[in-house]
Amino acid sequence: MPVVYIEDIARYVGQEVRVRGWLRTHRSSGKVQFLTVRDGTGDLQAVVSKGVVGEEQFAQSASLTQESSLILTGTVKADKRAQGGYELEVTRIEPIQIAEPYPIQPKEHGVGFLMEHRHLWLRSSRQHAILRIRHEIIRACRNFFDDRGFVLVDAPIFTPNACEGTTTLFQTDYFDDKAYLTQSGQLYSEATAAAFGKVYCFGPTFRAEKSKTRRHLMEFWMVEPEVAFAELPEMMDLAEALLSVIVRRVLETRGTELAVLERDTSKLDRVVPPFPRISYDEAVSLLQKKGNPIQPGDDFGGDEETMLSNEFDRPVIVHRYPRAIKAFYMQ
User: Fold this and answer.
1) Nearest CA to 22 among 35, 13, 33?
2) Where among 97, 129, 151 does a domain terminate?
3) Is 232 a member of any domain?
4) Distances (CA, A) of 236 to 227, 232, 243, 276, 292
5) How far apart are alpha carbons 316 and 267 in whole angstroms?
6) How does strand 3-4 pair with strand 16-29?
7) Per-residue pLDDT reduced to its tens digit, 70-122
8) What backbone torsions phi and psi does residue 94 show, to the nearest 5 degrees?
9) 244: CB partners within 8 A, 6+ apart
10) What is the pLDDT of residues 26-50, one digit of tens each?
């Protein structure tokens, strides 16, 4: 008898299978119980009938608590009324572990409470969807560079260097010396680009940011490609292609998760090349016409970036910044 994952359940209609997972919800209607079981790949409705499983198993099913682990045996049926269009007519229930009362109930919880129970919060539909989409982004990103002949470079996490300024460094004791959590793998990528021509690093980076906004994170993952001899137009082409490929991949493979997050995908549908490209001077002129007090030579802040983004129906690339406001390697 095959042991199947819920995401593949459609292939087994009419067959007897085993499904292993955790109980998400449970409701009863007389001599029939309806279990929603998840296994990490999807949710499946399982129908437990007293006349099929018998008194003992029916009572065992009724005693299951939320997030109890179990193995179900039954026949797969197509049913448009069921979640996902399929259900399992259960013939046998094998409880693995009865879970203690589940602390996260369907009501509003504070972030502190949810973070204290982070290992359980991950099982919620929203958190599950976020991590599935994150996984798809990472896979698409790696595939993009691998398909284009880039070599992956694993930059160190501990480093003696300050890549992005000394004010946001996390300092650690490194035996009798000092080391820092990396702010960027850029310096290592630049060195290896001279050996391999096209490289990228992709990993965690750390910034001792004290600002608590959507634009600041103390830890995040960053991808950094380096291409020897490349000029600015080539790098803009690369950035444009990377972003559009990632967004397309997520739209194609994670529509269910985007729906869980109630994400308006119409904006994502428009992330297709070519992206508008405007110079810094053109951007400043556009902002001034919109009433922004920015002056030539000023750097853009969040307000300016938002105003510029609202002028276009897809991502916009701003280039040719003044040397005084950007690092020497940026244009």
Assistant:
1) 35
2) 97
3) no
4) 12, 6, 11, 11, 26
5) 13
6) parallel
7) 999 999 999 888 888 899 999 999 999 999 999 998 888 999 999 999 999 99
8) -125, 95
9) 271, 272, 273
10) 999 889 999 999 999 999 999 999 9
Block residue for tokens 């510029």: 308
DSSP string, 111-133: HHHHHHTHHHHTTSHHHHHHHHH
Q: How far apart are CA 330 and CA 323, in angstroms?
A: 8
Phi, psi of 280 (to 5 degrees): -55, -45
Residue pointed to by tokens 């004791």 = 173
Rg (CA), the chain: 26
Give the residue numbers spanning the domain of 83: 3-97
Q: Tokens representing 166? A: 């000394």
CATH classification at residue 51 = 2.40.50.140
Task: Give the count of domains, the chain.
Answer: 2
Q: What is the per-residue DSSP string for 160-227?
A: S--SS-GGG--EEEETTEEEEE-S-SHHHHHHHHHHHSEEEEEEEEE------STT--SEEEEEEEEE
Residue 320 dihedral angles phi and psi, to the nearest 5°: 60, 55
pTM: 0.89
Structure-token pair, residue 261: 């997050």
Examine residue 274 and say whether the peptide bond preceding it is cis (omega within 30 degrees of 0): yes
Is 298:326 a contact under the CB 8 Å cutoff?
Answer: no
3-class DSSP assignment, residue 278? strand
Q: Is 160 part of any domain? A: no
Q: Rounded to 10 degrees, what is the CA torsion of 209, 213, 218, 219? A: -150
| The last residue of a domain, from among 97, 119, 143 | 97
